[in-house]
Amino acid sequence: MGVMSLRFRRAIRQHQNRLFSLACNMLGSSAEAEDVVQDVLIKLWEHLPDLSADHVRPWLLRVTRNACVDLLRRRRYQQAFVAEAVNSGPRAVETTPMMELSNSELGSRLKQAIQDLDEPFRSLVILRELEDCSYKEIAEVLELSDQQVRVYLHRARRKLRHALGSNDDE
How far is Cα 139 from Cα 150, in angstroms, rounded to an integer? Predict the structure, then answer.
């Protein structure tokens, strides 16, 4: 167990900040991001013996992304349920600034436009533009081909340009 424990600690040191950043960017809440990362690290402990060293990072990013998507779905369902129960319109989603974007009006609009993207477009933009993942890593995390990543990322960027009021298609 000593080797396993060392490997686990090394993986945490190498990846926890990136996982937290990814979860914060997807969820807009540092408290929820901390919970997600903690759950992901527990899953890592369970799966680490089955993962080769070069597959740990993509596996962690995929599990983190999937946990965030599940949480966002639950959040939407709960908000719809509460809104229906009180017979009012849907509540606004809690948003906090994404880590790297400024508080400018354009930054705020961009953050909201990213949050409004459907999956897998939201994950693609966050992984590529905010987390600086390679196309290969994104393909592995989202279980897509390299070509699908490029096509979907192009579509996601086009959706963002449209949401921000720029209608040129390059």
Answer: 9
- Please, what's the b/e burial string for 10-35 (b: 16 or more CB within 10 A of its CB; e: otherwise)? ebbeebeebbbbbbbbbbbbeebbee
Stronger pLDDT, 170 or 15, i.e. the higher one: 15
Structure tokens of 151?
A: 């096509």
Number of domains in the chain: 2
Model pLDDT for residues 132-168, shown as the tens digit of each residue: 888 998 998 898 999 999 999 999 999 988 988 864 5
Q: Are residues 28 and 92 in the same domain?
A: yes
Same domain for 61 and 4: yes
Q: Which residue has the higher pLDDT, 106 or 116?
A: 116
| pTM exceeds 0.85 | no
Residue of 99, 100, 112, 30 whose CA lies nearest to 68 = 30
Residue with tokens 């992984």: 127
Tell me the residue type at 81: F
- Could you tell me the residue range of the domain that residue 147 belongs to? 98-170
Q: DSSP characters for 35-73?
A: HHHHHHHHHHHHHGGG--GGGHHHHHHHHHHHHHHHHHH
